[in-house]
Specification:
Strand order of the largest sheet: 2-10-9-4-5-6
Oligomer: single chain
Structural class: mainly beta
Shape: globular
Distance between the termini: 41 Å
């Protein structure tokens, strides 16, 4: 059964850093097309970053140069390192497998404010 469990969110001041984790099961992470998406309160889903074996890591312009997506295949865990956080990064972050878009975790809340 496909499962995704996000963690690592929290409250940070602008300029701070957080590392989000997504523990996965039910599929092979190393060959999966994985994504991080986020949702600010009252707004729609926003794609943040993807990693796959064809394109490598790709990022939304709004996070390029600040966020880094990676994965530890042995630990079945996807990561999102977020540096130089801005208030507009606030939202609930989800990891999603492109081949299993009906499976979502609970998300992890990131709040950036002074």
């Amino acid at each position: 059964q496909v499962q995704l469990v996000e963690s690592g969110g929290g409250s940070m001041q602008p300029g701070g850093s957080l590392r989000l984790s997504c523990a996965v099961s039910g599929f092979t992470l190393s060959s999966a097309w994985m994504n991080w998406v986020r949702q600010a309160q009252g707004k729609g889903l926003e794609w943040v970053s993807s990693i796959n074996s064809i394109d490598g890591a790709i990022y939304a312009e709004s996070v390029k140069g600040r966020f880094t997506i990676s994965r530890d295949n042995a630990q079945n865990t996807l990561y999102l390192q977020m540096n130089s956080l801005k208030p507009e990064d606030t939202g609930v972050y989800y990891c999603v497998n492109t081949d299993y878009t009906s499976y979502w975790g609970q998300g992890t809340q990131v709040t950036v404010s002074s």
